[in-house]
Amino acid sequence: MIQLVRPVEAMKEQAIEFRQEFFEHGEFVINGSELFDKTDDYTEWCRSIDANTKEETVNPNWVITDTFFAVDDDRIVGIIDFRHTLNDFLKDLGHCGYSVRPSERRKGFATEMLRQLLEAAKKTGMNELYLSVERKNEPSVKTIIRNGGVYERSFEIDGEQADIYRIALLE
């Protein structure tokens, strides 16, 4: 059973290896990583994501966000973030992004990561979450639908067709 845990300095070596696996597979964007794919300084990244969890310290260009590694048997298998609000930039990206490392895909990790994140979102008092997904990313579409996602609308991003799904958090 996976656990969602906040990234900490002690996870640095594992985290770098996790990121490297994406790069070795030609994937240079790690969705839900709060720019972990764009930094070389893990310690600074940890400081940044910690600052973004609090209203007093959140980056003025961002929103309050919780970022978690998904850990299974002491191995980072994925990453997921939860954006508490949406600004103009995020309106088409949604409240959540996630990625599963290439060697761990098709094992149900993304579905479980999202399920656990939805439970955390409920505890904040949110009624619904919006998630975006490129239409051609069928595994992610299935993950969202398995977690109660209902199609809302379509849009285009970087020349790709994408859809927004809504997940109601109330029982």
Automatic annotation (TrEMBL):
Keyword Transferase in annotation: yes
Domain N-acetyltransferase intervals: 3-171
Keywords: Transferase
InterPro entries registered for this protein in UniProt: Acyl_CoA_acyltransferase, GNAT_dom
KW Transferase (keyword) present: yes
A Pfam family of this chain: Acetyltransf_3
Entries under PROSITE patterns matching the protein: GNAT
GO molecular function: acyltransferase activity, transferring groups other than amino-acyl groups
Official protein name in the record: GNAT family N-acetyltransferase
